[in-house]
Amino acid sequence: MREMGIHGFCPGPNLSKRLHCKYIYPYLLRGLNIDHPNQVCSIDITYCRMRHGFMYLTAIIDWHFRYIVGFTLSNTLEKASVIETVRKAIKQHGKPEIINCDQGSQFIVQF
Hints:
The structure is a single chain. By secondary structure, the protein is an alpha+beta fold. The chain has 1 helix and 5 strands; from the N terminus they run βββαββ.
């Protein structure tokens, strides 16, 4: 890693404490029995620090298989890369019933 000029990084302290949330929403998937593929997928975006900026990784994970069914890497946070990720995952693995996001939202796929 030293030769490539890359290093690990961690988020700052106390980022997940409930006191920082303005609104707290109920978790709608609590207790849901996930018993088949494409029932529930998660989508997440994370960033990777590079020497001259950031790259953003968008990934979709099927909860039944616990497997990444789609991903893209982009140098911007524009919605086009997220939409491309969802479309590629649907084309390869079929349409999920629910897509869950860690930002407090669950929605039905309408493609």
